[in-house]
Amino acid sequence: MPAKKPAASRTATKTPRATVKSSAQTKSVTPSRRKAATPNRRLPAMLVAGVGALLALALFSNGNSGSVTPSPSGKPLLENGGLWQSAVQVAWQTKKPDGNLSYCSGGSGGLVGEPDQVLTNEHVINNSDNEGDCADAALYVGYPVEPTGVWFVWWPARVRGESTFLDLAIVDVDLTATAVVENKVYPASIVLENQWPVYTVASDVPNLGDPISIYSYPEIGWYSMTYTAGHVAGWSWDRWDDESAKGQSEAWMVEFRQDADGRRDYMKLDATVAHGSSGSSVLNQDGEIIGVSTLVGVGFQTDAVDCMEFVDTNEDGNIDDKDACVPVGGFLNAAATLTDIRAFLTKQGLTP
């Protein structure tokens, strides 16, 4: 497929160090208010890498009239569709005079419960770093409308609820508003006239070594959809006291003091995530949400990557602790845990 000619010009995102955070019958997107759930991931065969653009449109257009392929958890998907449909982009953008959008900052998200409801990271929906030309940026959510994850339809959105301590947020999408279409070959009707799938939140905490998969929008590769997979690598946490928590925001401190143990838990991943993957849903083998990608490297208070001083980086003739630490081997990334996700959704009045 030829390289995308972005109708929405994209500039480098400003994502913080940590870039990259119910089960109901799937409903047709008739702009209703939202309640909670998600699609299903684990049909690798359903990701058809080389599908042509017009063929993809034809398959989507027949979604209501053709046979429906059940997902592992029984939620209906569009014919020849897949879990990628529920993996959306969340971005702060400005509208240009020609009606197109200009990207300022953002990350990834997953539709949960309703087609107009997105689970993502708090740091993705926090626009405090937007300035200059992006000072007046508005929040948008982009829906992928063909299997390569290159073309999107965008709708305006607003934050319904957020947790700075857990780095989670729920975003409501206004599907009654006028959409911004990147390519007229893929109109907004693809989303509005089909039963758009959403993810389900898992009931059971995963086991060590369980397979996982992630659809996200890392900056590497120009923000197109990227699929990575791996395993649950373990669990970790950051624990604070009043002294070590100094410097955090007021909202963070309020939640920290309300937390029973002052600890933020993580699920460790060996799956690849990168800046821009923030907020993407971590899926189990049944395509259910078990985590939300939140950190490149595990932990705020410890080294995220194994490294050693074995190069004379300051060129003083010695190799010692005055030299830069050079990464060695691999590193683990982190996601919000299923327990925290379910608690957050419940606090927002949703049924996980």
Structure description:
Helices cover 10% and strands 29% of the residues. It has 352 residues and is mostly beta strands. It folds into two domains: 184 residues, Trypsin-like serine proteases (Thrombin, subunit H); 137 residues, Beta Barrel (Thrombin, subunit H), CATH 2.40.10. The strands form four sheets. A six-stranded antiparallel barrel has the order 4-5-6-9-8-7. The protein has a six-stranded antiparallel β-barrel with strand order 11-12-13-18-15-14. β5 and β6 form a beta hairpin. The longest helix is centred in the last third of the chain and has 10 residues. The radius of gyration is 20 Å and the shape is globular. The two termini are 38 Å apart. 45% of the residues are buried. The N terminus is likely disordered.
Lateral strand order in the biggest sheet: 4-5-6-9-8-7
- What is the N-to-C succession of helices and strands? EHEEEEEHEEEEHEEHEEEEEEH
Distance between the termini: 38 Å
Count the helices. How many?
Answer: 5
Measured as a percent range, the helix fraction is: 10-25%
**What's the mean pLDDT score?**
75
Quick one: CATH class of the largest domain?
A: Mainly Beta
- Regions with pLDDT < 50 over 5+ consecutive residues? 1-78, 298-302
> Count the strands?
18
Strand % is 25-35%
CATH-defined superfamily of the largest domain? Trypsin-like serine proteases
Structural class: mainly beta
Count of structural domains: 2
